[in-house]
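User: We ran a pulldown and think these components assemble together. Before we commit to crystallization trials, I'd like a predicted model of the whole complex to look at. Sequences follow.
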Amino acid sequence: MSALLEVRHATRRFAGLVALDDVSFALAPSEILGLIGPNGAGKTTLISIVSGTLAPSEGEVLFQGAPITALPAFRRARLGIGRTFQIMRPFPGLSVLDNVAVGALFGRGGGQPKLAVAREQARACLDFVGLGRSAGQRAEELGGPGRKRLELAKALAMQPKVLLCDEVMAGLNHVEIDEVIDVIRKVRDQGISILVIEHVIKAIKSLSDRLLVLHHGEKIAEGVPAEVLANPTVIEAYLGKGRA
Amino acid sequence: MDLLAQILANGLLLGGLYAVMALGLALVWGVLNIVNLAHGAFIMLGAYLSWYLYTDAGIDPFLGLPITAAVMFGVGYALQRGLLNLVVRAPMFNTLLITFGLEVILTYLAQLVFSADFRTINPPYAGDSWQLGPVTLPVARFFAFVVAIVLTIGMWLFLLHTQLGRAIRATAQNLIAARLYGVEPRHLYAMTFGIGLALASAAGGLYGTVSQVNPYIGASLTAKSFAISIIGGLDNPLGVLVGGLFLGVVEALTTLYIGPTFADVASLGVLLLVLVVKPSGLLGRTA
Amino acid sequence: MKPVRALLVLAALALLAAVPWLGSDTLIQFGINTLLLAVLAQGWNIIGGYTGYASFGNSVFYGLGSYGVAIAMVQWHLPFAVGLVFGVGLGIVFACSLGVAVLRLRGHYFAIATLALAQVMTAIVSNIGLAGQNVGLVLPPLNNDRLFYELALGLLVLATLTVWGLTRSRFGFGLIAIRENEEGAAVMGIDTTLYKVLAFNLAGIFSALAGGIHAYWITFLDPESAFDISLNVKMIIMAVFGGPGTVLGPIVGAFSLSAISELLSSNVTSVAGLFFGAVIVAAIVLMPRGLADIVRNVPKTGWRYFRQNIRAHRL
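Assistant: Here's a predicted model for the assembly, 846 residues in total across the polymer chains.
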C-alpha cells in the first residue's frame, strides 16, 4: 500500500537555528502516527511544513504520490490536509456552528457552495466531537476543552484525508483525554489518517499504530510504540543522560 | 557641484527636524501600539506654545523648549491616563479613530483660540547664516538640527540605560511580563505618552522657527511623521533619525531635479516602496 | 429577515424615494450628498467591516470614477453610462495592480499604505493633460437633481443588497473568516489573496460609481476635490459609528452623522467641528461597535452596555 503522505528529508532553518534536520517519514492510509519528543524538538515545525504554513529550507512533501511542497496552505487544505493548532485559532466573532461551517464551505475539493448545507454538515461534526449543545454559542465563550474540540470539529468539517493534530489533549483531565482518544479513533475508523503530536505519553501509546520521536530537530526513533518507548536513546532524550 | 552640496545640506538640516517630529510618534506607536493620528496637531500646539512664550514673555524659542515640553508632558500624561487608557485593549483600529477625533477637536480649538493667521517665531538671529565652505547654513535651521540630534541620541540613551527607559521597552515587548516585574502599566503608559507629546511639542517649537504655523498644519505633519517612522523602523530612535535624514535628502533632491510639487510624491513613493518591500523599515528587525 | 423589519425597510425606502417630490431643493441636495456618502461607507464596509482590512484610500476609487466620467464625456464625447463603466474599469485596474501589493500588509500598515496611495494619486492626476491637469474639467451640465437623487438612491440600494448577499454567501463567510483569523482561514482552504482582492474590487466599484455620479452632478472636477482625502475618514467614521460588519450600519451612520453635522453647522458654526470630534471620541469609548450593536444589545443589558465596553477595553 503506497503512502498517503510522505515527507522526504525535510530541513528547516531559522536564522542560525536548525529546527528540523533531515526528517523523513511516511503515513499510510487509516493509520495513526504519533509524533513525540521533548519541547522544542521540532514537532510543530514539522506539522507546519506538512500543512503549508511554513516552507521547508530543504526537502519535499508528497501527498498521494504527488509533490505538494510548492503549494500554499489553502490548496493543501483543498486536497484534503486538515490541521488543528496548538495555539487555537477560532473565529471569535462567529458562532461555534459557523466556525465549523467555514470548514465545510471551503474544505476538500473546494468545499460546499451552499451555506445551509454547510451548516448541516457542521452540526454533524459538532455532534461527532461532542459539542452539539454549544452550537449557538459564540466561539470566544467556549472554555479550554471546548475550544480543543472546536478545533477538531473545524478540521473534520473539511472532510480531510489526513488530519494533523497538534496537542489536542493539552490541559485536559483524565476523563476528557479518554473522550478525545475515543473521538480520534472514530475519526480513523472513517478512513482518515492522523498524525498526532502529543505530550501525554500514556494516551499516545494506546492511540498510535506507530510512533515517531524527534529530538533537537532530528528523528531519533520510529516504530511500534512498545519498541520505541523502550529505546534507550528515546528515554535519554526525555530524562537526560545516565538514566537509561 | 556646489549647488548639490547646498541641497544636500538643506536636506540634512530638514531631515533632522523631521526626525524629531517623528520621534514621539514612533515611541508611542512602538511601545503602546497607539497610532496617534493627532500627533501633528500636538506638534502644532507645541509650536503655538513656543510662539506665545516668545511673543508674550520674550523667551527664546530654543531655551523655552524645556518649558513647553514639560507642559505638553503633563497634557500627554493626563490624556493617556484619563482617555486613551480606556481604549488600549480595543482593536487597534479604535485608537486610530479616537486619535482622529482628537485631531479634529484640537484643530478646531486652535482655530478658535489662535485664529487662522500664519505665525512664525522670529528670534533676532533668524535671518543670520553661517558659511561652511560652499554651503550656507541658516542659523535657526542649524540650531534646530543640533537640538534634533541631541534629542534623538538622548532618547536612545534614555531607552537603553535608564530604569524608566528599560521599563518602557519591557512593556513594549511584553505587557504581562512587565507587570510581573512591578511595572504599573497605567502609569507607565501615561509616562510614555507624555514623553511622546513632549517630543512633539519640542518638534513644534523647532518647526516654528523655520516655517509658518497655523492651525491646519497638523494633518500633513502627521503624515510625514508616519512616513519617517515606517521608513526608519519603529524599534529604535536612531532608525527614526536615519529615516528623517533620508527623507529630508530625498525631498531636497526631488525639489532640485524634478520640481517642488513632487517633493511630497517622492516621500510617499519611498514610503510605499518601504511598506511593500520591507515593512519593518530600513533599520527595523526583519519581521 | 423578520417580516416586520422587512416592512419597515421597504417603508423607509419608499419615503426616501419620494423626497425629491416632497422636499425643498436644499433637502434634495443634502440628500444626494448623504446618499453618496452612504454608498462610500457601505463600500468601505465590504473591505473594512467584513474583511477587516481598514482601507484609508477608497477615495482613490471615488476619484477614478469621477475622472472616468469626466474624461469620457468631455474629451471623448461619450455618454454618461459609458463614462461610468470607464470609471469602474479604472478602479478595477487600480485594485488589481497596486491593491494586490498593498493587501499583503496587515493592520495599520495597510491603512497607512492606502492613505499614502490616496495622496500620491492626487499629485499624479494633477499632472495628466488628459485629465485637465491642475485646472480640472468641466462637464456638460444636466440640471436634474431629482434624477441624480434617484440614481444615488438606486446605487445605495444596490450596494446594500450586495452586502446583504455577502452575509448569506460562501464568499462573505470567507471574508469574515479572513477578518477573524487570516491564517486560520488559509489553513481551512480559503484563497485569502484572491478574496481580499475581490473584496477590494467590490468596494472600489461602488466608490467609483458614487464618484461618477457626483462628478456629473456638480459638473466640475479638479484633482483636489475628486480625490478628496477627507472622504476617507468620513466614510470610515460613518461606517464605524453605524456598525461595521452589519448590513444597515453604514447607512444609519451616514444619515445620522450627516444630519448632526448639518444641524451643527447651520446653528453653531464655529463649534460644529469641535462637537463632531467630541462625538467621535465619545463613540469610540462608549460604543465601539457602532449603533447597530447598541440596537442589538442595549434592550438586553440596558445601560450596563456602555460600562461593559469600557471595562473590556481599558488597560
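Residues 174-189 of chain A form the longest helix (16 residues). That may be worth checking against your pulldown data before setting up trials.

User: Thanks, that helps.
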